[in-house]
Amino acid sequence: MEDIRGPDAELVEAVLVGRPGAFERLVREHQRLCWHIIIRMVRNPEDARELCQDTFLRVHRCLHQYRFESRLKSWIGRIAYSIAVRHMKRQRIPLAGQSEDTPSLIENVADDFDLEGAWADEETVRHLHLAIETLPPLQRTLLTLYYLEELSIAEIASITGEAMGTIKSHLFRSRLRLRIEIEARIGVVP
Fold this sequence. Notes:
It is built from 9 helices and no strands.
């Protein structure tokens, strides 16, 4: 694997040697990603805050094991994702939807489809966010990582442990489901 050191190496080294403020900087730089992953999975803000703290505690304890085989962002994201999945299993919350219907109504949505850009109207954006909340945790998380965090499919695969094809399939089905949900909410007849 390619060694991806760059600016991550300096920060990791600073944290490992205990330089003042280094760990706080690491948290600041990666807390948004951690929050997005966890809140989309567990949906409960109190649980999400606690799980984010657990994530950064684990990062602090295990940072010496980070080998620069992926970006630090992906490594931390993987930890956050694992903690959220473990929490969901303890709570007996299914990770993916029970039935994965693939409606045939709208099959021309491309991978580069800009969800929010396509719905510039404020009311429709509100409907979009409500529709996202109806998705299973895994699909909400994948959409967030892909569209809000702008991670590549490969980076998402690194974080979630899911195959790239599985991620693409979930994104495709999620976009279809969102579009149908939004059309229903705003009264568009398919």
